[in-house]
User: Fold Transcriptional antiterminator RfaH from Prosthecobacter debontii.
Amino acid sequence: MRPDEPAWYVIHTKPKCEHLAAALMRGLPGVETFCPRIRFQRSTRRGKVWFVEALFPSYFFARFIPLNSQRAVKHSQNVIRIVDFGGQMVSVPDSVIESVRSEMDHLEVKEVKAGLHVGDTVELTEGPMRGLKGIVNSIHDGQDRVKILMEFLGRQSLIEVESSKVLPEQTPREILAGS
Assistant:
């Protein structure tokens, strides 16, 4: 790629600062950014909590003309470096960026919902058995209730709970990759 033509590059940032660096970089003339992020629920001590994380932790994409903007991009706040190989900046093909955008449904933040399926390993998020894991045995009432096979006190038991009170063991990135 020529230094006087715009191209996409990978920007390495400080941890958990991708979206901040991308937002600040958008203010630079001639610079376009793309920082794909996912929104998902995770079980915590407080119950289910929504999280937003970068699809590529500590990285995002920026399109710019190196001759005009490389210095400003490299020294932008929260940026560690522009990813290079052997000191040579390597551009990312437009087709790769478009593929990621398609996967993200052309959104910067895509919500990842964990659909439950028979055989999935899940964790209870509420009640006296919070934190215990089991296997989905069956789904009832259009995903509103599920029966879970659990090992409890040395024997297997089948319990029925609201599907909103369980989280699958699969990570949001695994769910996104499988969709």
About this structure: Residues 121-178 form a domain with the SH3 type barrels. fold (CATH 2.30.30.30). The chain has a mean pLDDT of 87.
